[in-house]
């Protein structure tokens, strides 16, 4: 499969507000992408379109070889793993007393809770995933007893249970301390290396872009600032425009880090106030 995601001249308008404008973007095989942008830049809308929960107002979309308007979206979603803080909140409210292994298994059926017959093979696969994610010690524990980092790993296990071709991680580090974040990022390396799926990673922080992530999409106010190989996209100029601050980028151990550029007038990057 040449293109994992293809968007051509995609726009999305809600009421009188333009959320996305003329987005043309491709994710090809063996590419691992990060999406960066401020709140309100259009990141969530792009994810909603990729997962088929939101149709573009105009433009063409294809995901995993399925062209929107010509495919069964519920079937497509079975090939996409999804992890987000909103999903975490949902499990906290509805399945707080479910065991870790049952939550992981539910990913096979894309359900919130288990309503299908579970085979011994399903349980073996869940146990293998828990070992892979270093959470096998949580077997038998309920969701409400877990730390934030443990909950995030359980949801990643659930997303991997269906052996997705595309794994979407929407701000997976939110609420995690530095130790838990670095542990999760080390798992991202293992997932990219061993799980044979394409990762789409959404974050606010460029230091979370590990060596295995190859490409970056920068968004500002529903439009693309830059898209491509991370070394070419993560420049002072592109980040400053994206985050509306004078940013300076440096690299350590093949990871980018950003700081505010003290010797530049950052106000020229700030969003103009409405008159």
UniProtKB/TrEMBL annotation:
Molecular-function annotations in GO: ATP binding; ATP hydrolysis activity
ATP-binding listed as a keyword: yes
Pfam families given in the database record: ABC_tran
Keywords: ATP-binding, Nucleotide-binding, Transport
Record-linked InterPro entries: ABC_transporter-like_ATP-bd, ABC_transporter-like_CS, Metal_Ion_Import_ABC, P-loop_NTPase
Domain ABC transporter: 5-246
The UniProt record lists the keyword Plastid: no
Domain of life of the source: Bacteria
PANTHER family reported in the protein's UniProt record: METAL TRANSPORT SYSTEM ATP-BINDING PROTEIN TM_0124-RELATED (PTHR42734)
Family: Belongs to the ABC transporter superfamily.
UniProt-recorded name of the protein: Iron complex transport system ATP-binding protein
Source species: Paranoxybacillus vitaminiphilus
